[in-house]
Amino acid sequence: MIIRAKIGDYDVGRVLIDGGSLVNIIFADAFRDMGIDDSQVNRQLTPLLSFSGDLVQPISSVRLPIAFDITPRKTMVYDQFLIVDCPTAYNVIFGRTALTGIKAHLSPHMLLMKFPTCNGTGAIRGDQLSARPCYATPLK
């Protein structure tokens, strides 16, 4: 499922929700575009296994706030992201830690993610228009 989310102070599109991933990933191009100060990054990391089964060495990691908001039903969590430099159609991948942090419930066949907030249940719908080019890019 592809959504938009606010990460740090930036509205980020092409965010993949992947409940099977153990980590949150932000890709290097998106991270550079965000202009986040290098003093926030941690450079001591171990490799991770990519979608294709290859080992990928993250550049660094950074802890950022993630906001899921459809006002007045908004929730926010701080979570760790691995910064990875590899070609992809996505800007960010949210894994289990981010989803667990906001207590999200996914309904992929309905393109819907729900989460509790102080003002009731919040919901974000998947963005089909953004999803089409993301799914088509790897096939080319």
What's the quick description here?
The protein has three helices and twelve strands. It is an alpha+beta fold and 140 residues long.
Keywords:
140 residues; alpha+beta; six-stranded mixed barrel; 3 helices
Quickly give the CATH architecture: Beta Barrel
Q: Got a strand count?
A: 12
What would the average pLDDT be, to the nearest integer?
86
The CATH C-level name is Mainly Beta
Overall helicity: 10-25%
The main pleated sheet reads as: 6 strands, mixed, barrel
Question: What does this protein structure show overall?
Answer:
The chain is an alpha+beta fold and 140 residues long. It has one domain (2-139): Cathepsin D, subunit A, domain 1, CATH 2.40.70.10. It has 3 helices and 12 strands, in the order βββαββββββαβββα. It has helices at residues 28-34, 96-101, 128-136, and strands at 2-7, 10-17, 24-27, 41-42, 48-49, 55-56, 60-70, 73-84, 92-94, 105-107, 112-117, 120-125. Strand 11 (112-117) and strand 12 (120-125) form a beta hairpin. The chain is globular. The model has no long low-confidence stretch (mean pLDDT 86).
